[in-house]
């Protein structure tokens, strides 16, 4: 894995874990923002737990693909909420993160394919 991919991976791990922790802790900004769109405390904690687990899975090479899928799904949910809130800048940033997760997924699949003998 080259340097750029490692940097992308570190950024994505940080984003997933930090996003998950803030939701699990029910940080006022997250609770208020997602609460406007029907997220209860329990749903927000579960959502944050999914992001945290996905971020942890991103760290481990053998679980990186499933981790990137989990994080991509949670980021896409966030993008929908951001669109509903008319927050275009953060929506674009979220879609860029999802695209980077796609790169991680592709790289993970390349590593998992057995070499023909």
Task: Write up what this structure looks like.
By secondary structure, the chain is an all-alpha fold. It contains 5 helices and no strands. The chain has helices spanning 3-24, 28-35, 41-59, 64-84, 88-112. Helix 4 (64-84) packs antiparallel against helix 5 (88-112). It starts with a helix and ends in a 5-residue tail after the last helix. The model has no long low-confidence stretch (mean pLDDT 94).
Beta strand %:
under 5%
**Radius of gyration, rounded?**
15 Å
The biggest sheet, with number of strands, parallel, antiparallel or mixed sense and barrel status, is: none
**Proportion of helical residues:** over 70%
Structure classification: mainly alpha
Count of DSSP helices?
A: 5
Poorly predicted tracts of residues? none
Average per-residue pLDDT, rounded, comes to 94
- How far the N terminus sits from the C terminus, by CA atoms, comes to 23 Å
Would you list the SSEs in sequence order as H and E? Answer: HHHHH
SS elements, strand count: 0
Shape: globular
Could you give the topology of this structure?
Blueprint: H1 3-24, H2 28-35, H3 41-59, H4 64-84, H5 88-112
Helix pairs in contact: 1-3, 1-5, 3-4, 4-5
Quick description:
The protein has 117 residues and is mainly α.
Main features:
117 residues, mainly alpha, 81% helix
């Amino acid at each position: 894995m080259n340097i750029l991919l490692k940097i992308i991976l570190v950024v994505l791990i940080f984003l997933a874990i930090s996003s998950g922790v803030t939701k699990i802790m029910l940080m006022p900004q997250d609770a208020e923002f997602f609460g406007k769109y029907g997220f209860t405390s329990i749903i927000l904690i579960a959502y944050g737990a999914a992001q945290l687990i996905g971020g942890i899975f991103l760290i481990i090479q053998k679980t990186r693909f499933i981790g990137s899928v989990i994080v991509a799904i949670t980021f896409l949910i966030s993008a929908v909420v951001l669109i509903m809130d008319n927050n275009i800048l953060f929506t674009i940033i979220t879609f860029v993160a999802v695209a980077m997760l796609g790169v991680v997924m592709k790289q993970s699949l390349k590593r998992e394919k057995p070499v023909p003998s």
